[in-house]
Amino acid sequence: MRELEELILKKGKVLEGNILKVDSFLNQQVDCAMMKLIGNEFANYFKDKNITKVLTVESSGIAPAMFTAMDLDCDLVFARKKKSLTIEDNIYKSTVYSYTKQEMKEIMVSKDFIKENDNILLIDDFLANGQAAKAMIALCKQAGANVCGIGIVIEKSFQKGRKLLDEMDMDVYSLARIKSLSTEGIEFED
Ligand code: 5GP
Description:
By secondary structure, the protein is an alpha/beta fold.
């Protein structure tokens, strides 16, 4: 998606450890006009899959997932990283290794919000080693729901995630695919 690639080049900052910082439009401040375009692009790509729910992980997946769910006319569910007092034991949970925080985290979602007959579209802000996506797939599997596709805003194609999801036969649609990342510059896949 050309507009997204231009925004990444304009506002993205490359940090140590192959991390791209995009907190001025995605990870802290949110560019709503861009999220609208992103939501529209994902919804258009997955429109024939009869999606009944969009699933993401809090917090950075919520903005793009929300605009996608609006365009697909379905609800958005986000997996939580922290167990709050209002979450009962009626949950599906899975563990994920956080790429940016370098620690194991549990993600959980109430059994009330993902059901056996759901067709789920997974959305996330980044794809690095695929651990967040894998954990979301595990939550859906526990519910017996069908994962119809995965929408990624920024894929770091040089990391392991894309291959992992391709090997799982997932339909992955990434809007910006980064081939290489360094302080010298950012290069996208063709
Ligand atoms: P994965 O689970 O695919 O290894 O990593 C994806 C998750 O790690 C995303 O949900 C995102 O929050 C975080 N992440 C991975 N790489 C980056 C990055 O380069 N920049 C930012 N801001 N987050 C990242």
